[in-house]
Amino acid sequence: xxxxxxxxxxxxxxxxxxxxxxxxxxxxxxxxxxxxxxxxxxxxxxxxxxxxxxxxxxxxxxxxxxxxxxxxxxxxxxxxxxxxxxxxxxxxxxxxxxxxxxxxxxxxxxxxxxxxxxxxxxxxxxxxxxxxxxxxxxxxxxxxxxxxxxxxxxxxxxxxxxxxxxxxxxxxxxxxxxxxxxxxxxxxxxxxxxxxxxxxxxxxxxxxxxxxxxxxxxxxxxxxxxxxxxxxxxxxxxxxxxxxxxxxxxxxxxxxxxxxxxxxxxxxxxxxxxxxxxxxxxxxxxxxxxxxxxxxxxxxxxxxxxxxxxxxxxxxxxxxxxxxxxxxxxxxxxxxxxxxxxxxxxxxxxxxxxxxxxxxxxxxxxxxxxxxxxxxxxxxxxxxxxxxxxxxxxxxxxxxxxxxxxxxxxxxxxxxxxx
Length: 419
Known about the structure:
Elements: E1 3-7, E2 13-18, E3 25-31, H1 45-52, H2 62-70, E4 75-80, E5 85-91, H3 96-109, H4 114-132, H5 135-147, H6 161-166, H7 169-179, E6 185-191, H8 195-206, E7 225-230, E8 236-244, H9 252-263, H10 269-276, E9 281-290, E10 295-303, H11 308-321, H12 328-345, H13 349-363, H14 369-377, H15 381-392, E11 397-402, H16 410-418
Helix pairs in contact: 1-7, 3-8, 9-12, 9-15, 10-11, 11-16, 12-14
């Protein structure tokens, strides 16, 4: 592997993935904190903190943080998930130290200026409004709320407009102090970088970061049932989901292949039988989201409300059939798809940095792509059918948003699946 790791005395891990043919570098900090770690009365604080890190430090204004990178042709960005927050920059190699300095400055010296905070709250409230107006996005929030009732992991990443508007500055600062420490952070560089040189850059800027301790996460508990929300829109948006394996479960590989076979591409079963042969949808796909302890296998479709009574039986038929019948050709196509995705992703500087940050937080070490490919290749048709039986023999998590008049009762859908 091209990956090297150095740990500082304070516990901070510095990881590089050198790509000799690259002409750029991706520099970033991956922090093991997200929506799942928020206080009960502060839903959305993880995402708000991500925004506020760009709003000025003791020595740089909000404008300067972006302008210093962009005047050299680079770009900065960030994202928040339910289990991690990432800050990164894509730059030319000669600007790697600048990127490292800016990210270190943001994460350790952001001032959370009250005026900037008030403005940014309004920006996020607009983002929440946009999400509510996008049913294809909002339905995934509804699904997580249903799957994880009364649990932090099930709450919206954006939070609610009500909570964001009232969130005190002191709560934000406490959250950062509690979670943004050396033991919960990984500094990553990928591309045209030298490990020793990058370690020195990071060491000079992060060595005073406190070691810290992160409070334990609550164990996730997946529920089933239905959440149906009527709305006067053109399409009916549906998610049929099931409890699945977490990222440390060995069944994860069979589950990923099953998702591709069912709805991972345009040659998948659901795409062909639902869209191509019957014209029931524009979009239908299957995927599996894995968290540290649990996972959610979901099938999403957007359909004409008048034709949902045709859609549901076809989907249920496929979920029953895949427990018994998987062809060698289907499995071979799915494996080829995953293999290509992994290997093509390794051509991307940003892709390699992102995978590395994720793996270090999730597993505490980088995972050799060759090892992942070996485990995927070892999955048999029997393994995938057994996984399908395990997933689809249990009651589903049904979420629907739109005109609901022709949607079958939840109990009837359950019976279809259990035939």
